[in-house]
Amino acid sequence: MRWIPARAAALLLLGVWSASDAAAQSASGITREDIQRGVTVESRLRRDYEPPGVRLGGFRLDGTLDIGGGYDDNILGLKRNSRSDGFADQAGSVRLQSDWTTHAVGLVGNFDARQYISRSEFDWVDYDIGAFGRYDVNATTNVEARYTHYRDHLDVYSYDVQTAGIFRPVPYTSDEVQASGNTRFNRFGLLGNVLYRTYRFEDVDFNGVRNRISLNDFDTLIGTVGTSYAFAPGRYANLIVRLQDISYTNSISRGRDSFTWQVLGGVTYDFDGVWQGRLAIGWQERSYNDPTLKNFSGPAVEGELSWAPTLLTTVRFNVARTIEESIRFNAVSFNRTQGGAAVDHEFLRNLILTADARADYREYQSPTQTALDGLFSLQARYLVNRNVSLVGNYTYTRRFEATGGFPEFSRNLVSLRVRLAL
Questions:
Q1: Which positions of the chain have pLDDT values less than 50?
Q2: For residue range 238-285, what is the model confidence (pLDDT) as tens digits?
Q3: SS3 call for 255
Q4: Angle of helix 19-28 relative to helix 3-14, nearest 10 degrees?
Q5: b/e for 355-392, b at 16 or more Cβ within 10 A?
Q6: In terms of Cα–Cα distance, which of 207, 303, 234 is closest to 38?
Q7: Of 1, 100, 145, 324, which has the fewest Cβ atoms less than 10 A away?
Q8: Which strand (E) or helix (H) includes residue 21?
Q9: pTM for the whole thing?
């Protein structure tokens, strides 16, 4: 009975909620918490389908395991001489976290792996494992520390990988240590964050040639200070200052060492509970240790917008413009502009549909090159019960523009996974 959620929302806005209304919404599975401001299709709890987890004293253990497979019609990301193959997928996650009223500690682990049926050289295994702790000084002040170890990879069809002359996944490991704190003084808020992260790339063999990707190993230190002013409930003005130092570990690459500063100002705004967004615009500049390398500078943008036209649909928009490192020997960094829109729709209480469209534009300064990639994906998530769900995905990737002699291409990928949850 789809009229109940809309009626419940109207009653909540009017401040009217009778016993008969409560009984009706309980029968439909819609609760008062489901229609609070800020609740989206993804964040809404589905109490009949939420995995129960395992209670261990003052802790809760949650975990998932995905098993499935699919088909990739262009594993190399090429216009000509493309290769297709089927694959098997496995993924999982585990999280042990305290459920204390104050403070928090926890352990988190995730993995994702793929094995191709006939082209094992394209197999990859990603994982991360970490721990965190938060100390609540009072209701408005806390400090937090995190450590995470990653193993990840750069995809074959990445423009940065292909222009480096590599048509293989590029694995790397990374260690990240992060400390942050925030507090509030009446209407003013203050946030501080320090992040240190290492990147260690593995050398890759392609066509009998050893590609020394490890020469691009680097460490980065990022410090961020942010302030906010609340001029109304849910409405803030923000100012962010971010500094980044990048240091390469190999002496042959030390000229690529750089320092970046970034200043952004913007707002976080809850318009009416239906529209909510955050937008920050500013300027960023990166200078290099090697004086022959031209500095990077330009606008910096971070933005997110959420629109809930109904209780059953959420539309999300995002945009970002950053400066990022390249693994190429002839290109140090590039400007990256990303943007997209996604729609989440609760077709049934236990069937969630998602459509996502994104664009990724890269601008290299020396040599002057550009690339524009687009991605469109569809996902259907069917919740069988609290412990079992089915996840189907279709992804279409297309390179609309590329310079430097690299052709455009398209790629179709379909997959189906069974998800088991604690």
A1: 1-28
A2: 999 999 999 999 988 888 999 999 999 999 999 888 899 999 999 999
A3: helix
A4: 140
A5: ebebebbbbbeeeebebbbbeebebebbbeebeebebe
A6: 234
A7: 1
A8: helix 19-28
A9: 0.86
